[in-house]
Amino acid sequence: MPCLYISTNVSLDGVDVDPIFADATRAVAQIIGRPEHLVMVILKGSVAISFNGNKEPAAYAEIVSMGGINREVKRNLIATIGSILQARLCIRKERFFLKVYDTTAGQAKAASKL
């Protein structure tokens, strides 16, 4: 089950977050290759974030998945989630950081050493 956790310093008060959840869920499912009903998205606003020494709109996100992650998938996730945040919350792509975890990556390396 992929889980995308997004934190932003943008206030979400009065923002219709449903399109953000829908777009992010669809994007993660398509890019990683998992069904939408297995994708979890968490969105937290009004988080104290300073990026490049200022508090202009910015976001930090983490995605955890059991498999399905490679270099191309990472690039696509960064570009697509960045585009969603820019379109929906006016966060410029260069003020967005995504950390990607594949929980099976260590298992594959350990299994290959056996």
TrEMBL record:
It comes from the Eukaryota. Gene3D superfamilies: Macrophage Migration Inhibitory Factor. GO terms for cellular component: extracellular space. GO terms for molecular function: phenylpyruvate tautomerase activity. InterPro entries: Macrophage_inhib_fac, Tautomerase/MIF_sf. Belongs to the MIF family. This is Macrophage migration inhibitory factor. It comes from Citrus x changshan-huyou. The lineage of its organism: Eukaryota, Viridiplantae, Streptophyta, Embryophyta, Tracheophyta.
